[in-house]
Each structure stands twice: as C-alpha cells, then as structure tokens.
UniProtKB/TrEMBL annotation:
Pfam families named in the record: FliJ
Entry protein name: Flagellar FliJ protein
Region (Disordered): 118-149
GO BP, sorted A to Z: bacterial-type flagellum organization; bacterial-type flagellum-dependent cell motility; chemotaxis; protein transport
Recorded GO CC terms: bacterial-type flagellum; plasma membrane
Organism this protein belongs to: Paralcaligenes ureilyticus
Subcellular location: Cell membrane
Keywords: Bacterial flagellum biogenesis, Bacterial flagellum protein export, Cell membrane, Cell projection, Chemotaxis, Cilium, Coiled coil, Flagellum, Membrane, Protein transport, Transport
Compositional bias (Basic and acidic residues): 123-135
C-alpha cells in the first residue's frame, strides 16, 4: 500500500493542478464575458448607427454620405461577425477548460478517497491491535487471579 507521505504528495500535486485548472477556467470565463460585452457594444453601436442613417435619410442625404453610412454599417457587420466567431472559439475553449478542471478535481477526489480509506484501514488495524493487547492483558490478569486461588 502507498505510504501516507507518498499519497499526501500526490494529493498536494493534484490540488495544485486542480487549482491551476480553476484559475485557467476563471480566466476563460472572464475572456468570454469580455467578448460578450464587446459583441453587445458592437450590436448597440450598429443599431444606433442604423437609426442615425434612417433619421438622416428622412431629412435628405447625399449619395456619397449614404455610401459612407452604408460602408460603415457593413464594416460593423463584419466586426460583429468576427466577434461572434471569436465568441464561439472562446466558448469551445471554455468547455475544454471545464472538462480539464473536472478531470483534475476527479483525480484529486480519488486521492482523497484513497487517503480516507487508508486512514480508516489504519484506524481499524489500530483498534484490532489495541483489542488484542487488551485481550492479552485481560487473559494475563485472569491467569494470575486463577493462580492465586
């Protein structure tokens, strides 16, 4: 059976690994939130710009200004499309990071279960040993009392 110190070393390593995976997962979550915020900002900006175009068109607009408005909206659409793709990639990385963290936590939990089992077996062994010692002491006392009679 593995020595307690070896198992404790494995637990420490597994804990460090799980902590590192958790930190990576937090960073990925933060990156996802930032990407979602950027996407929302782009979408609001596009909506506002489209409304400005419509208001400006109702008052009259030159062809060159209309072209500039439309070109800028197309640029915003491209930026939104790229941000959507980036968000999909980040979500994929986030899912991988979550799976990696789960794997590290499972490994840590396995080692903790082994340590618990080992401690329970040691306690049972100690209890049996103590019981044997008590039985021997009782038997010796009984023999001594039988000899005195």
């Amino acid at each position: 059976m593995t020595k307690p110190s070896s198992l404790n070393t494995l637990i420490d390593l597994a804990q460090n690994s799980a902590d590192g995976a958790a930190r990576q997962l937090q960073e990925l979550n933060s990156t996802r939130r930032d990407a979602e915020q950027q996407l929302a900002t782009l979408q609001v900006y596009r909506r506002d710009y489209t409304e400005r175009l419509q208001k400006t068109m109702s008052h009259g607009l030159s062809a060159s200004n209309y072209h500039n408005f439309r070109q800028f909206i197309v640029t915003l659409d491209e930026a939104i499309s790229l941000q959507n793709k980036a968000l999909v990639q980040i979500k994929t990385k986030l899912e991988s990071g979550r799976e990696y963290w789960y794997e590290k936590k499972r490994r840590l939990n396995s080692y903790m279960t082994l340590l618990s089992r080992q401690a329970r077996q040691q306690a049972e062994s100690d209890n049996r040993s103590e019981q044997r010692t008590n039985d021997e002491i009782s038997a010796n006392l009984l023999r001594r009392t039988d000899k005195t009679y």
